[in-house]
Design brief:
Chains A, B: InterPro entries: Aminotransferase_I/II_large (IPR004839), Class-I_PLP-dep_aminotransf (IPR050859), PyrdxlP-dep_Trfase (IPR015424), PyrdxlP-dep_Trfase_major (IPR015421), PyrdxlP-dep_Trfase_small (IPR015422). Chains A, B: Its cofactor is pyridoxal 5'-phosphate. Chains A, B: This is 2-aminoadipate transaminase. The structure is a homodimer. With about 400 residues, chain A is an alpha/beta fold. Chain A has two domains: about 15-50 and about 290-395, Alpha-Beta Complex (Aspartate Aminotransferase, domain 1); about 75-285, Aspartate Aminotransferase, domain 2, CATH 3.40.640. Helices cover about 40% and strands about 15% of the residues of chain A. In chain A, helix 8 links the parallel strand 7 and strand 8. The radius of gyration of chain A is 22 Å and the shape is globular. At the A-B interface, helix 1, helix 3, helix 5, helix 6 and helix 10 of A face helix 1, helix 3, helix 5, helix 6 and helix 10 of B.
């Protein structure tokens, strides 16, 4: 029994903290950690793809050769050779990115927080896709914006909608490659139109691209960053091509914005671990990703195919789903009367998990949607899990 | 020559971002990185104290034995065994700290940012010491508080002042051991009085303690956390006892606050690197710090003595300074007419650097103060640098 302490405080949280809630999805994810659960709920990459040996060698080398630098405080904008590597790797399609435009961050999520800090005031209008990445909605929410959901279709965000909705907005957040949660990809034509519209509206266009390298069927499409480096804020990450647990990503933006974000980052966490940046530079500098990424693509592509085949076999014809050309997610839309939050309760009882779609909507949720990840589950288990879900859905028709 | 891009944006930054400034101190620190400069300006621990070999062995062991876990996404509140280690190490003087009260953060600076996020609204009254740690002022500033500077004397913060100033405030930020920037320590009596006053006012009391283990002359004084775990928010760090470049600290607080901070952290950077936490746990779990910390104390204590002796020899009698019993800093007060920002310009021309005191004041700055760090400079260089400063000051009398 807890003894009441008369000195215990009554908390007065900030308004933004009062709006914070325990994420329903996080609670789900805790359940899905149990080994008996077939979980399509995670947003985690497959640990089978982690280059543990290469990391081990790199940690040893960096600590041996440059231990005192690696373990000391470092610059807020990041480890210069890695910033240069990022700049070079993004200097494609005729555009030159300079390392001055690169800010290293403690995972992309921190990039979102810093963007919110420097671009969003209470009540600022900001545009997001319908649906959008939940982590971005959470990060931006802390700064109290008015979210405007831009309509989408199977080709992703519809640029012409931005022309009317975007006036006076502070930013547009987009995820053009294999979007989280839908798996959708924007065409080159749409990208170019969107870049032009945003430039005309003086609207900062955020291109979040954690999955861009994980293209299954063809070469990745051109980045909006390269279409207009002076108007696009590009976000990249080592989480999906190397490992997520090291927390390392980057934001590439015009220098005026990088300056502000660097000042905000200094107040937020001083800098991202120097050792981690030096180790990642050591791992990637000689082209390791060129041979490593294809192995990830192959694994995920095979499992994506297995899930698409299982959906065709086991899901009723009244359900529809996306056919991603890369990334980690498939988005399913069920008949309107089915609430996937309730479906999840039933699924968990049968040891299958997914993420209900509602939390991914900034405004009106579509409660008949759900997100499936195929990357951490082997094909046989994918079929087993999708069959169980299919039966649960069929029982509701 | 840069070609103007007609698509370049005109930026509309948030109000908080417009108030952000490039830190004068950061610009100073860039200059002081030059090898010919004797720098008392840094807040960096001495790299001579970094346990590089122990870290290397631990990285190798963790990656070999638990690589897939260490490199995967991890829980937002932190690596459980390390949280438990922190809780146990703070369960002293009869109070029991539970691991549920521990949130791992990406360096103490992130703890400050998260506290600002969940406790400060625009215009909230918050109390800080006079002067206070600059990084805390920067972190809190982003959330737009009204700072109230609590008067201090040679014994640090004066608790009775809090009784009148603290009504309706959201938090009191204190650094009771070898404060940054003054090096001052609060007595046990003051700590107990402060804890009682804050409890009576329902005022959350932040006890920032990065230097607590670095006590030169005696055992560390009791922590305010242990005097009232239900009313004190304790902040600890591995930066000064292990290495800062890994960015690892912790906040210990009542569970209601930890819950809110955990939700805020999820939106801010998901979690702190799992690998780093596992490695630090591996390094510290069997008592390494018990033998390691005394070596840091000895080094810093010797250099502190060298600086105090040099100050007595070379500084004019109209200057006064603190005599720290631990930590990294000495605080100097010069005659009122001397502006240490201007003094710094002259000192840098003679290859000596320090940090002017003005930026450490939340309200009225005392421009005749300065902060000296003695931890990264060997004794002979300390004497040389202090002699140069002494002459520059003497010339102004």
């Amino acid at each position: 029994m807890k003894i009441e302490n008369p000195n215990a405080l009554t908390w007065h949280f900030s308004e933004r903290a009062q709006k914070l809630q325990g994420s329903a999805i996080r609670e789900i994810l805790k359940i899905t950690m149990r080994p008996e659960v077939i979980s399509f709920a995670g947003g985690l990459p497959s640990p089978a793809t982690f280059p543990i040996e290469e990391m081990k060698v790199a940690f040893d080398k960096v600590l041996t050769q440059q231990g005192k630098v690696a373990l000391q405080y470092g610059p807020t904008d990041g480890y210069a050779p890695l910033r240069e590597w990022v700049a070079n790797s993004l200097s494609i399609n005729g555009s030159k990115i300079s390392m001055d435009q690169v800010l290293m961050v403690s995972g992309s999520q921190q990039g979102l927080d810093l963007l919110g800090k420097v671009l969003i005031d209470e009540g600022s209008k900001i545009l997001v896709e319908t649906p959008s990445y939940l982590g971005a909605l959470q990060a931006f929410s802390l700064y109290g914006p008015d979210f405007v959901s831009v309509p989408t279709d199977d080709g992703g965000l519809i640029p012409d909608e931005v022309a009317t909705l975007g006036k006076g907005a502070r930013l547009l957040y987009s995820l053009p490659n294999f979007q989280n949660p839908t798996g959708r990809t924007m065409s080159v034509e749409r990208r170019q139109t969107l870049v032009d519209i945003c430039a005309r509206l003086n609207l900062p266009l955020i291109e979040d691209d954690p999955y861009g390298a994980l293209s299954y069927r063809s070469e990745p499409l051109p980045k909006m960053l390269n279409m207009n480096p002076d108007g696009v804020i590009y976000m990249g990450s080592f989480s999906k091509v190397l490992t997520p647990g090291i927390r390392l990503g980057y934001v590439v933006a015009p220098r005026a914005l990088v300056d502000k974000m660097e000042q905000a980052k200094q107040a937020t966490d001083l800098h991202t671990a120097q050792l981690t940046q030096m180790v990642v530079h050591e791992v990637v500098k000689d082209g390791f990703l060129d041979t490593h990424i294809p192995t990830i693509r192959q694994l995920y592509s095979d499992q994506c195919d297995a899930m698409l085949a299982a959906l065709t076999t086991y899901f009723p014809s009244s359900a529809t789903w996306t056919r991603p050309e890369g990334g980690m997610f498939i988005w399913v839309t069920l008949p309107k009367h089915i609430d996937t939050m309730k479906l999840l309760d039933e699924a968990i009882k049968q040891h299958v998990a997914f993420v209900p779609g509602a939390p991914f909507f900034a405004n009106t949720p579509q409660s008949n949607t759900l997100r499936l990840s195929f990357v951490t589950v082997p094909p046989a288990k994918i079929r087993e899990g999708i069959e169980i879900l299919g039966k649960l859905i069929a029982a509701k028709l």
